Amino acid sequence: MNKKDLFERINKDKGPLGKWAKHPEGYYVFPKLEGPISNRMKFNGREVITWSINDYLGLANHPEVRKADEEAAAEHGMAYPMGARMMSGHTDYHEQLERECAEFVGKEAAYLVNFGYQGMVSAIDALVTKNDVVVYDMDSHACIIDGARLHQGKRFTFRHNDIESFEKNLQRAVKIAEETGGGVLVISEGVFGMRGEQGKLKEICALKEKYNFRLLVDDAHGFGTLGKSGAGAGEEQGVQDAIDVYFATFAKSMAGIGAFFAGDKEVIKYLQYNMRSQMFAKSLPMAMVKGALKRLDMIRTMPELREKLWENVNALQNGLVEKGFNIGKTNTCVTPVFLEGDIPEAMAMVNDLRENYGIFCSIVVYPVIPKGMILLRLIPTAAHTLEDVEETINAFSSIREKLKKGFYKRIAAALMSEDAMTE
To answer: What is the pLDDT of residue 421?
Structure first.
């Protein structure tokens, strides 16, 4: 008889991030930003410049969006339509949004999903069988990694944005697919959300002339921000037609909930009848659907939103580079600032930024990035001002000097010593 309790491991090992949970939840993790979504919000009782919200085009609190959301909620409530799309949750407005999304990104058809993460996991599961092979960038979002884990066949990763590594693993995949009688699905992101680099879609698509594979692109951060019309990374790189299945979320530029897949009619119809996350889950509420229609219309007809976004992006990134900060290879709105330090130093630094400088940004540490590195991720939006940018760059210059002089290391050591004494 097995006497080991399943939860014994959980009680002893909280995981690489969970071990820090004894430090204040609600501050470093699960923080609570309050007030209208904007460039400045309230945190811990004080106003802060918010750089951690993916409201790229400033639509979350736009008066036209608020009006559309309020009217749709007043008319339909938040429950309608009830049930899954396949059973009782289907409406003309869902179909209208799908048609408009497909047209906007230059595809034949689109399919709405209720959540982006679930949708991507489920789409990968639906698109491949055990005879097929999946090849994906090793820096892919967790939804892609989790979808690939469900795959019962072979899967390979390639070094991030490394086309030589990609081709080498693609060759391996093609060879196995020839033996199993299957196909090859390649997955990349249009924009990698941590480092801000566009996926090398143009280079990947060029290899379609040499190898037989299909390409799925997660363009969560590119949709609405990149390309002449805002149709994303594929449009930006001139390869939208070569993307076989295009995915975008409503949770970023559209400042809402939901997502969609777009592609050829036959492929989209297949997904409608085979994505388990949608077949057995509630349809996207009508208030979200009508709200998304309004947001999409604004993206199409108000290029000034994207222009203001990029004015702020360029001011922030150029200003940081001029001050000697390392922002990696970003060529998108996502602005990473790389510093050297350990997790306790990072926590002390973030506390200083929020309490003494009024700057709220996301902090990324090991295991998401290598040990000894700290990544402060800034998300500029159309709602920010150039004053916000200047204030933030000045604050970053100040905290960098403190980091170099060991100020945060001393603070962290003192806090850890206090913790040890109270245990």
So the answer is: 44
Name residues of the chain where pLDDT drops below 70.
1, 16-17, 19-20, 22-24, 415-423
Contact 52, 360 (CB under 8 A): yes
Other beta carbons within 10 Å of 423: 6
Burial 238-271 (b: 16+ CB within 10 A, else e): ebbebbbbbbbbbbbbbbbbbbbbbbeeebbeeb
| Assigned token pair, 343 | 């997790």
How many Å apart are CA 410 and CA 351, to the nearest integer? Answer: 14
| Integer Rg of the chain from CA | 23
Name residue 376's beta-bridge partners: 337, 363
Instruction: Classify residue 336 as exposed, middle or buried by CB count within 10 Å of its CB (0-12, 13-18, 19+).
Output: buried
Task: Identify whether the C-beta of residue 352 lies closer than 8 Å to the C-beta of residue 408.
Answer: yes
Cα–Cα distance for residue pair 105/232, rounded to 1 Å: 8
Burial class (CB in 10 A: 0-12, 13-18, 19+), 300: middle
